[in-house]
Amino acid sequence: MMMLRNAKLLSLSAKFQPSSTEPPQNSRRTNITVGTTLSRRNLSKSSLLILLSTQTTLTPLLDFSKAQAEDTTINNPNPSNCGNRVPTTKAFIDVSIDGEPIGRIIIGLYGDDVPAGTARFTSIVSGKAGISYRRKEFVKIMPGYVQHGGIRSYGVDAERATAAVGTLQNLIEEWERGRRGAICNEIKAGSVGIVVRDPSIPPPKTKLVARNGKLAMEEEVVAVGPNGTEFVITAVDSPELEDSVLVIGKVLEGMGVVEKIREVKTVRDNTSSPYFRVAKVIGDKRAVVAERGFNRPYSKVLVTNCGLIESQTL
């Protein structure tokens, strides 16, 4: 029995023995590997030659792109003229917290650079418009800036503001010039600016309504945007505000008062809540109302008096 099994194994192994005319499998693999290695070497040499030959062609293109980038930086006047702005007018605001005076903030306004924004602010701070920031509150205290609520967007005050200082469009035009780099709109620590738009407000929603027995499409405005009377004072560099604020001046004296305002406790910002995020995405009005309350001070931070400082050296 054992001999028969060995004979079968020998016969089976004989079938798989390579023939004398064909090279062994191992030698074929060796040849293929060697061939592949040689072709890769040749390819590497060819690639190196191609790169060396095209270097003179690529270098001018790279230099041209670099020159374009340098031209873009030079053509943007924003970094160069920001330090050259000179205040032309002085204004002041006196502030109290819960009825306790905390000091005065003196602001220098850039009348030559942003005439529309400066005229609007001075007409309100002086009372020339028939309205004033006096007895109006700071409504938002953020880590980097404080925001005054301005004049409400409805009622007699709003009508007087529009009649005296015009619409918001002229401020938006100056803000757009700043975005293009025609004027400086960098927001550094101590900057004072008017809020011209609110990026957090969602776009209007289109809805189907029935009017006089007919269906019609109309836009539903979720929230009211700024009216050009709200202003901010920054405590640190705040480039994120450049999308919404037109810089009209800077704090000359009274940054200590701004720091005291920043120390006031505020309503906790809950925008990181997943429930709030979902409500904001689907356009729930309750989310918009809740967001208005975030970062509002618990104490009443009030402008007790304000006006212009006449004919003094700036």
UniProtKB/TrEMBL annotation:
Native source organism of the sequence: Camelina sativa (False flax)
Domain PPIase cyclophilin-type, chain residue ranges per copy: 92-308
Protein's recorded name: Peptidyl-prolyl cis-trans isomerase CYP26-2, chloroplastic-like
InterPro entries for this protein: Cyclophilin-like_dom_sf (IPR029000), Cyclophilin-type_PPIase_dom (IPR002130), CYP26-2-like (IPR044185)
A Pfam entry, by short name: Pro_isomerase
SUPFAM superfamilies named among the record's database cross-references: Cyclophilin-like
Superkingdom assignment: Eukaryota
